Amino acid sequence: MKKRSTLFIILFFGLSFVDLFAFEVKGRGATFPAPLYQAWIRDYYNLTENQINFTPTGSGDGIKSARRRMVDFGASDTPLDKKLRDKYGLDMFPSVTGAIVLAYNLPNVRDNELKLTGKAIAGIFDGTIAYWDDATIKSNNPDLKLPHEKIIPIVRADKSGTTYNFTYYLAQVAPDRYKTSKQPEWKASTIGGKGNSGVSATISQLKYSIGYTEYSYKIELGLSAARIENKEGSFVSPTIENFQEAMKYASWSIENDFYAMIAYSNGKNAYPIVAATFILMPRDMLIEDKTNVARFFDYAFRTGDEEAIRQGYVPLPLETKNMIRNYWKLKGVKLW
Amino acid sequence: MVARYFSKVSFMAAMTSLVLLVGIFLVLTIYALDSISTFGLGFLTSTDWKVGADDEGGVFGGLVPIVGTLLTTLIAMIIATPIAMGIAVFLTEVAPPYMVKPVSIAVELLAAIPSIIYGMWGLFYLAPILQAIFGGSGIGVLTAGIVLSIMIIPFMAAITRDSMNTTPNILKESAYAMGATKFEVIRDVVVPYAKIGIIGSIILAFGRAIGETMAVAFLIGSVFSFPKGLTEPTTSIPVVLANNFAEATDLELSSMFYLALLLFMISFVVIFVAKWYFLRGVHHAK
Predict the structure, then answer these.
(1) Which residue of A has its CA nearest to B227?
(2) Comparing C-alpha atoms, which of A273, A197, A243 is closest to residue A31?
(3) Is residue B109 in some structural domain?
């Protein structure tokens, strides 16, 4: 009996403590960083009792929700340009970055063995390279036994930020054939999968297929991924070090709300297909609410890198994080 | 007293389904209005599905998913109907008593498997087999149709079996007494007697096949173009809706409601025609 009343008192005070000091923040949007956000949210809640509700609904919905002021922040895998930011009245900063790998299912070719040039990738996805033993692929992989089988390119069936970032890369290597788009019309005869999970599952099951998916899915499913030629002509493996190498060249700036595409950068070991995911915050939101959002991400920036790497994401460099903190300050947010 | 309330309650229950049907039709139409007024009936013959810049506007047409839906459903029905009829006849007229129970339970268990499991089985097991046989990717109209047929067989078989079981023994025995063979009894006594139930089972199975989403999404390939052959990928109405709904806005969203409305009307028309054609002259036994 005594035990129970003690428990009750603890619960009572515990709950009232939550009511008095904790805050609640609502967010919606991008699915790509969602598993990481959920982990950060859990840790943050355990530490501070502050509840962040993030619903992964897709980048388009993230933008829509922020624009209609339905949430405290929206998450999007595609940055909004200045025109749209002004039109919708949104501030923007990156939260974490990730990389897109080209995963393949080829018997006799193991992980990290296949080397692909930008030209080869562009050719595979517009159908001009139809067979695995095409000269363009073969010339860079003289030691591999490439079969005379049709290449089956796997793409996203849904509109997606991953596709946006992948086609941005394609538009850099073959500007006359590709335009950046969340849902392009592929010229090759492709197979579509829903979400990164759908694409990855299809690649893992279909022989002779190749597709683009987020790095974390490659790790999770143990897919084989290609080394890709970067801007300086070296073939780079998809590893965390090589992703971070690419981040060093990102041209973030406070003045432009961190609007930047960071794929296909310079740097000898820079992996070419990397992308950041962004947070959108209504400009006219109360400073108090902005502070709550900023505090959560500040916490994530301070303690969340390990979790990010464990899940296959690439944390922002320290300089960028500090730049974002300054950005918040400019918006009137006092962190602690 | 009780009887009066009972009849009122059952009347209301019946009305609910009618109200829901009309309600769904109205809601679909209202949300689709934007697209209907923009594209009109041209939507039915256009093959484009292009979102405009900034996710606003665009050109949308429904022919590819309409054809994909009808094609996969047709394949499924062609494969499933004879097999399901075979199962039902076997269970009611041919099977030795000790086999009836286990086979019946197996059929009913098949019906209880969630569709996503069929989809995963198709992608992980059937697709590589079809790839080995036909080449190509192993994903496409045929794969989706085969898995759909497996999904609807238990429905058809179970309902057909139940309605065949209602044939009075006295009718069958009379036929046998007249010297009819087993086949003649099935053809001339059991099937005509169970006709309403059989047609009903086919219609229910058709409804499940035409609206199936998850399994087909795994297997059809989700590509917005006509299939060049039976083993080539395309897309279907439910798959387009499932893939694009979360990210669509404005006109695209409205166009997807238009597609949903078309799916609704296709199944409505098919069921109506089927009932009218097959059940001419059949008097509903009360």
Answers:
(1) A189
(2) A197
(3) yes
SS3 A100: strand
CA distance A15 to chain B (A): 36
Evaluate if pTM is beyond 0.80: yes
* Rounded distance between C-alpha atoms, residue B162 and residue B228, angstroms: 41
**Pair (B122, B86) in one structural domain:** yes
Q: Compute the CA torsion angle B100, B102, B104, B110 (nearest 10 deg).
A: -160
A187 vs B: CB within 8 A: no
Nearest to A192 among B51, B131, B221 (CB): B221
Confidence tier at B54 by pLDDT (50, 70, 90): low
The number of folded domains in chain B is: 2
Strand-pair category, A235-236 with A227-229: antiparallel
Which residues in chain B are contacts of A209 at CB distance < 8 A? Answer: 137
Burial B49-59 (b: 16+ CB within 10 A, else e): bebeeebeebe
What is the average pLDDT across A91-114? 94
Query: Is A199 in contact with A225 (CB distance < 8 Å)?
Result: no
Chain B residues contacting A via beta carbons under 8 Å: 50-51, 54-55, 123-124, 127-128, 131, 135-139, 217-218, 221-224, 232-233, 235, 239, 242-244, 246-249
Which of B137, B139, B249 is the closest to A60 by Cβ?
Answer: B249
CA distance A29 to chain B (A): 10
Determine whether the interchain pair B246/A64 forms a contact, defined as Cβ–Cβ distance below 8 Å.
no
d(CA A28, CA B249): 16
> Is B58 inside any structural domain?
no
| Residue with the two structure tokens 């041919």 | B94
The pLDDT of residue B285:
47
Task: Give the CB-side neighbour count of residue A248, counting CA atoms within 13 A.
Answer: 12
Q: Would you call B246 and A60 a contact, using CB atoms and an 8 Å cutoff?
A: yes
State residue A227 phi and psi, 5-degree precision.
-80, 135
pLDDT tens-digit series, residues A16-55: 444 455 788 999 998 889 889 999 999 999 999 899 999 9
Q: Are residues B88 and B139 in the same domain?
A: yes
Overall average pLDDT of the B259-286 stretch: 80
Instruction: Inspect the interface and report whether the beta carbons of B139 and A202 lie closer than 8 Å.
Output: yes
As a whole number of angstroms, the distance between CA A100 and CA A77 comes to 12
- Reported ipTM: 0.78
* Among the four given CATH numbers 3.40.190.10, 3.30.930.10, 3.40.50.720, 3.90.1170.50, the one describing domain A100-247: 3.40.190.10
Cα separation of B251 and B119, whole Å? 30
- Please report, for residues B37, B109, B232, the alpha-carbon distance to residue B71 in angstroms, rounded to integers and kept in the order given: 28, 27, 12
Can you give the residue range of the structural domain that contains B15?
2-50
Predicted local confidence at residue B271, as pLDDT: 85
For residue A216, give the nearest of A200, A205, A204, A203 by alpha carbon.
A200
Domain spanning A2-98+249-330 has what CATH number? 3.40.190.10
Closest CA to A183 of A165, A203, A209, A163: A163
pLDDT band with cut points at 50, 70 and 90 for residue A249: confident
